[in-house]
Amino acid sequence: DTEVTQTPKHLVMGMTNKKSLKCEQHMGHRAMYWYKQKAKKPPELMFVYSYEKLSINESVPSRFSPECPNSSLLNLHLHALQPEDSALYLCASSQLRGFYGYTFGSGTRLTVV
Amino acid sequence: AQSVAQPEDQVNVAEGNPLTVKCTYSVSGNPYLFWYVQYPNRGLQFLLKYITGDNLVKGSYGFEAEFNKSQTSFHLKKPSALVSDSALYFCAVRPLNTDKLIFGTGTRLQVFP
Hints:
The complex is a heterodimer of chains A (about 110) and B (about 110). With about 110 residues, chain A is mainly β. Helices cover about 0% and strands about 55% of the residues of chain A. Chain A is globular and about 40 Å long. The mean pLDDT of chain A is about 95. With about 110 residues, chain B is mainly beta. In chain B, strands 2, 5, 6, 10, 11 and 12 form a 6-stranded mixed beta sheet that branches. A 4-stranded antiparallel beta sheet of chain B has the order 3-9-8-7, with no helix packed on it. A two-stranded antiparallel ribbon of chain B has the order 1-4. The interface between A and B is medium-sized, with 29 and 25 residues.
């Protein structure tokens, strides 16, 4: 299995809703990432998990809450989002350090109304 | 500050002609270099990487990239463009001993029939 699977593919939520994005990989990668991507822009790093521990938080607002229950799963919990949070949310995984790139999922297209 | 530059927002080329998408970087040490491609509403797909060795690296779908250390460049090339190559291309670098990928701003490649 050489894929990163993200669900759901599309999500529409109100500003008072609570929702979660899910990401799964079975490649044995011990680093997992959340990125946010606006249209025609490069991905922006949000969080990095190394060995299931949060290692990087790029000053992301607390309305985004990551969770890594085990080495294969990564969640992003969403609460009280703003319309400007509408974007493509990408999950990725990689081997730690070394000369490895990332394997990206197809993303969740989030719309906040 | 570490950065990656893609000086062209868009590159237009006729089908069958060679293409080049430019990338330069400003990162300390000898980082690992990558190219990714993104089709509409999809995640990023790995094309190729440079770690060490031969300055010309070959990747997926007939793409190759030329590393130039003195110019700190890593330009993406293809001898004969296809209409299906039309997509958004990102150059990325991974500094040594980090888990972060630093992305360029992206170049939209448009191949005309």
